[in-house]
Automatic annotation (TrEMBL):
Substrate binds at H117. It holds the Pfam family Aldo_ket_red. The keyword Repeat does not apply. The gene is LOC102022412. The active site is at Y55. This is Prostaglandin-E(2) 9-reductase-like. One of its GO terms (molecular function) is oxidoreductase activity.
Amino acid sequence: MDQKHLQLALNDGHFIPVLGFGTSIPNKVPKSKIIEATKLAIDAGFRHIDAAYLYQNEEEVGLAIRSKIADGIVKREDIFYTSKLWPTFSKPELVQPALEMSLKKLQLDYVDLYLIHFPTPLQPGEDIIPRDEHGKLLFDTVDLCDTWAAMEKCKELGLAKCIGVSNFNRRQLEMILNKPGLKYKPVCNQVECHPYLNQSKLLAFCKSKDIALVAYCALGTSRDERWVDPASPVLLEDPVLCAMAKKHQRSPAQIALRYQMQRGVVVLAHSLNENRIKENMQVFEFQLTSEDMKILDGLDRNFRYNTADYLAGHPNHPFFDEY
């Protein structure tokens, strides 16, 4: 299949591969695992790698990418690499240094996409989740429009080819879109999205503004206890999803990924298992019918795996709005 058909045009003229490989791993998994998995993903055909400062493994991911470039498997321009600005770097003067810190770890000259990870500015410092001695979250009062202006500067300097946001609701997106003197609108909004949380209203809004929706937790979640309630339902065991997988002689994961693609959503798949990584890449080999799509739409229950409870109490917490 022509690689161009596997990409979505962004509003700034760049293209994003519609299937990406997620690099977040649970705390208890050794970081060497992500080097191995990222290499396997590139070998399997993944060209979109999604990472973040938060995951604390950009050195390892960068090493995997550079080793595949050195092997002649890919060129740098073949890889679409995403990183994210953590909220402790929301102050405009911290945005560029934060991106440069990621680039130094990666040993790359630029990222293809840089996202504001959460619309919840936190106090700068070493702690990812800064709290006072009573355990109260230390948030910062930063105008996200000022953070965005600093993101625009990173784009102009060539440190990031594209800029976007993550975990923004409609109101927060509109705040950026209505910013006086806006130079570049976000190319995408990366949010949790899967059959149990299909984000249909946010998707329609993003499409109306020519903003791509990128889905994380598309297969449910790795059930990392830092972020996710272990008692959450297991998406890939859903009987409807499993019945459809059987009908198409595919895996439930492939059905969940294909569902997003056919809705025009860019989708991230995460696995450390070689067979599953290869299997996820086979999502281009079949199609769901409009009836299948309707059935999967019916699974929506507005259920969120990543509730971002650790940011509860922040006035800008994004998940309290309807969408």
